[in-house]
Amino acid sequence: MHNRAVTAPAISVLRYLLLAATAAMFILHLATAPLLRRGIRAVTLLRFEIAYYVLLLAALAVPAFRRVLVPAIILTALHLAAWIYSEIHREQGVPRPGVLRAVQVFDTGEAVVLAFIAFLLL
Question: Which residue, 1, 8, 72, 116, has most beta carbons within 10 Å?
Answer without folding.
Answer: 72
